[in-house]
Each structure stands twice: as structure tokens, then as C-alpha cells.
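Running this now, will post back.
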Amino acid sequence: MTDRTDLPPRSTASCGADAVIAPPRPRREAADGDAAARWPLAAIEALFELPFADLMYRAQATHREHHPANAVQLSTLLSIKTGGCPEDCAYCPQSARYTTGVANEPLLDVAAVTAAASAARDAGATRFCMGAAWRSVKDRDLEPVLELVAAVKAMGLTTCCTLGMLKDGQAEKLKAAGLDFYNHNLDTAPDFYGDIVTTRDYDDRLATLARVRDAGLSVCCGGIVGMGESRRQRAGLIGQLANMDPYPESVPINHLVQVEGTPLATRLDGEPALDPLEFVRTIAVARITMPRAMVRLSAGRRELGEAVQALCFLAGANSIFYGDRLLTTGNPDVEADRALFAKLGLAAA
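Update: finished.
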């Protein structure tokens, strides 16, 4: 293929009302003076509106240009510090503001984490992600996390952490301990964000992502769909991610899991669930706009079923969370995933 699949289609639309807010880094200028690889919102919306077969064809072609056709990377996610978060994210059962049955638990010790990492590695996972329910990580809490990172890295696994917002210098300490990726999701588009979270703003998230980049860490950053947002807002989320310079190396796309006790468990009552094909479209648009990224099926995968997951892989998803749990919600178990991979001719990478 000779076309540049990482560039948006040419459009005569004005960028005025369609412009996304500034990414953590301004994009480099191309030799001809045009912004390099910039995706206006109108161009992303146009992708969403393509006939389904055309969108899938373009996404699969992009995927094959940049990745092995039938390989899926396996990650395992462990909650190393569960519950008690002071934030008000409307989807999250770990918020101390909601009654969800999730207890406030202390940080796991090295033995517990390395045992879980060993089991994940033996099951085929190559990346081990550690999540802590903090708004931001305090220096006193960071020190034991650095020990966990070093221990998991010594096992030969790719390491990832999600610890909330970072202050100056903390990302560098994580890098020195052996961290490879830092996860910090944007959740949704800027114009819908205030409907979901009020205890931190969008700029807080972008500032942490900038610190991660400055430290030389790889970025894992995505969001959640099915929270009541419009298609335009789903396109806005993809635009925020695709217009980062560079865009994230890892892009987790979550399908909302409605947990009893969270605001989104009741706020969406009576509203139709997100059409599964709209979720597939979101995966395809992420693949086209971020061709070299690992696009990961994350929370909500169990609820999608095998047929929709198969369409997501066709649309360019090439990473999954693997194991029977994510942070606090269920996930397809290992044997079920192995059976699905065998049906589809997929290989773990």
C-alpha cells in the first residue's frame, strides 16, 4: 500500500468549530508548513459515518500494514490498591463516594504481586499492569510501588502502572525502577467530561501525560464508550488521542460496565445500551487514526460476546486484558479466551 494511512483524508472543512483542544505537545510542522498527521474532528466523524464494510476494510488494511495480521498481545491487570478513591468518576466502583461493595484495601506486598505476575506470565501474558485507586500518588506511597515495579520487571514482563495523577519527578522514578508504560485514560471527550468526573479536569489528565512523555515512558491512554455520550463525542475522544504528539503506544477502549451503586448504573436506566456495532466502529476508527498503536479491548469485553469480539479483532484490535478479573469487574477467563483464539485462528503475541 502506498497511501499514508496515518494521515486524515483530505477535507475542505474548516477546523474552526471542529478543532480539538491542544494535546500535551504541539504537532511538529511538516516540510510544506502544514501540521503533520492532524485529525480534525470532522474527518474522524466522517470515518464513523462510512458504510460498515468500507470502514472495516480500511481498518483491516491499516492494521495489516503495521502489525502481524493474526497476533494479539496479552496483558493482565492487577489491582494493587483497591477502593477508597476520593474522586467521583461516575462509572467507578472504587470511589469512596458510592456504595458498591468494594472495600478499601491496603497496598499489596511484593510476594502477592509477584505471585500474580508469575501466574499471568505462565498463562501467556507478556505485559503486567498494576492499578492503584488513588487520585494522585503520594511520595510515601510511591516508594513501595517502585519496589513492585522492579520485582515484576525482573521477571521478564513488560510493566505498566496506573496510579492516578503524577507530580514532577515521579514519572522519572518509575522509569528508573523499570516501568515501561504508564496508563492514564482521558475517559471521554472534553465536552462530555464534566458529566462524568468533577473532581479533576481535563488539563490535569493532559499534564500527567506530559510528565509521562518527558520521563521517556510509553503512554497507555484510552477511554470508555457507552456512558451516554454522542457519536460526535466518541469521535472527540479519538481525536484527543490521535492528535497527541506522538499518539499513545497503547490505546485501551473500554465498554462501560454498569456497576450497581455507581451513578451510571442508574443514570442510563431506560436508555438503550450502546449498539455493539458502534463499539466496533470505535475500534476501527482508533485503528485508522493511530495505526501503530496497540488497540486493546478492555473492560466490558465479556459482555460483548464472541461474535462482537471477533469483529473488533477484524477492526484492528490487537491487544486484550487477559485473566478472570480486571481491577474489580469480571473478564473472560483464560480458557474461554484460548477457545476463542482457536476459533478465530489468532495467536498470542
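The radius of gyration is 19 Å. More later if anyone needs it.
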